[in-house]
Amino acid sequence: MWKEYYIYGITMVLPGAAGAVFTPGNIRIDTDSDFEFIKTAFTPSSARVRVKYRDDTNGRYLQKDSQDIRSIGGTTLTSLPAGAPTSLGLIPFIWPKPYIISASTNFTVEASDFSGAGEAAFRLAFHGSKIRPGQAPWDRKYRAMMPYVYPVSSTGTVTIGASGSLPVSIPTDNDAHFLVYKVVGARTGAAALTVKDGGRDRQWMNTEIHIDSFIGNGQFPNILASPRFIARGSVLSLALTDLSGAPNTVEINFIGVKLYE
After folding, report:
1. Among 207, 188, 203, 186, which Cα is nearest to 124's?
2. Which of 113, 117, 224, 245 sits at a 20 to 30 Å CA gap from 196?
3. What span, in angstroms and rounded, lies between the C-alpha atoms of 5 and 214?
């Protein structure tokens, strides 16, 4: 068995001042593999909600009672100042032990707003791994391994139009496979994204993830729960969506090692 990094995300909209009324949101686990999560992150950092997690396979809750999401979810290190792209540190909540959710089942997030400020919306991301059968594609002897970084573009950044979407392709070199271990970046405004491995036609997440739950900075990077293998000569495909309502400059760097056969 081997593990491949993956994120299951959910966006929830809650009625304001709901008190003890909890709204359920279901995450459907894909049929192709079990999922093991170890980290959680949420946006925005100002969210004032209480959450409970339930594994619908057995009806088991992961908590005795609800918790403030800030107690069991991480977020960015700092707020975002205006101006040039700013790199934010990602500090997710790390669970004491990984938890496995069976393929083809539901994982339920029950949430209740306690801000009293009207309708509340937040995004939650579960970082972990799909558990695959067989041998990892990088589990072999390579002639050489070299640290390397693939940026989002040849200029280092891309700009999304206000409230617009932007597809981005990152071609990998033909000389070596690439194994991703970390993701860092910067942005001028809120955005969402998906990432897809074009070589094997595999998504990195089940839905759009807020960029702040995906990129970190040099001090606090997104350290992947398990590596992602990118075959040489294939393409990483990103779909970026602006959530800020203004032109949004984004930088994303995939950090790992080149694997030379």
Report:
1. 207
2. 245
3. 12
